[in-house]
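tool_call: predict_structure(chain=1)
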Amino acid sequence: MVLTATACAGGQVRGSQSPAASGAPTDATFVYVPNLEVVTEWDPASSYSNEIIAMHNIYETLTRYNPQTKKAEPLLATSWTSSDEGKKWTFTLRQGVTFHTGKPLDAKAAKAAIERTKKIGDGAAYIWDAVDKIEAKDDFTLEFKLKYPVPLDLVASSGYAAFIYDTTAVDGDSDDLKKWFNEGNDAGTGPYTVESWRKGEEVELTLKAYDQYWGGWDGPHYKKVSYRVTPEITTAWQLLQRGEVSFVPRLNPQLFAQAGSAENVQTSQTPSFQNLLLLFNTASGPLKDVRLRKAIQKAIDYDGLLAALQGSGVAASGFVPEGLLGHVPGRTPKQDLAGAEALLKEAGYGPGGKQLELELTYAQGDNDQQVLVTLLSSTLDKLNVKLSAKALQWNTQWDQGKAKDPEKRQDIFVMYWWPDYADAYSWFFNVFRSTPDDQISFNLSYLKDKKVDEAIDGLPELMATDPAAAEKAAAELQAKIIDEHAAVAVPYVVNYQRAYAKSVQGYVDNPAYPNVVFVYDLKPAA
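tool_result:
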């Protein structure tokens, strides 16, 4: 899962125009302005990156999470039931749905898509780990038998790895299908299909309405969706003001304040399930000493950082955001410089001792992470700690974190995390469950604790069958990971601050799908 919604300052409006540039803001093309390249992986089985913003307009899942009800709601499945204490789930599929290939959606096709995703095992495919067997009981009835109980209705709403697609889109095996996908083709059931993809160009991706979409096209709808890559945040703001684009997922605090009073722009601010993590290297380098990890935790100016973010972040309490099972109130961290200095001194560092040298990596172009780095560097300098901070593109940063030679890995890895579906398990399993050194993915604190692993492995069943016990287990795990191991610091939870054209009607932010705009649900003003 890579970073999304980062931002760069500076820049002028470039000369090229978006598909909406020649028309009024009410043009039927919705123009989304990401700051990063949109597509890194076209295969819906493997997609685990920024392309989520496009994929959810092309592909659909059995269910979709509703943040208002905090429940999964019908999408390609119209209803579902669970039995046998949550170990058997039966979904009834929507009739009259076709893939963009023209073939009908039925239970066999849905079964084939999920089984292919499971078999490939990339990205978030782990969400299906509990599934033992899938059966197409009839044309529109899909039955899942599980090895252990999980909330499969939530699993089926995942932002990644839950897409239903036509596995027969091309002749040949799964590798042939992957090659076809990665040429910019799609085989979804969603309201839009790919019209053009020009990797590396400003207008990278354009989608067009799928005429046979099961939801129909009566009434006002955007008939096209364009993704115009605009790295500079001021350029994105200028384009929005000029009516050339429809939606900017992120502005800096100053521009967001301006947007709130602009005539042709509207804004929204929504709490998210996305937080910022500082992962400390528990396995190698100076931070192998837990006293030093705890010192860095205490040194962070949490309140000062929130003040500097001016509303784009809110205080964290543990690493499970509010609104998800497993959130623990009362864990909001506070700066403790005296405590940090005492721990540094105990380890032989700090004022009057040896200088501690640490390397930190963070996302290039992310203003909020830059603010964190600036504040932390200043604080640590007073404690005789030299912080060498490197701003890197995600793949470069990630490659360093996964380096085979432990000595080449960073001491502090800064990254955002959000759940694959609306459940806290994603943090525990992906970020803190131990992995072999040659299989490091997102456990970039390199934490290894068998008891932690065992507790993590027991969470899904608890979350499905005993919420009270799950809350207790999640609280105990966070205490062990944050307090005992000091594997992570969590400075804030992101507030989604959006700016979009006044002509866009019906936009609602859904934190379960970070930065996704479900364009079909919008109406262009007449």
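agent: The chain is about 25% helix and 20% strand. Proceeding to next step.
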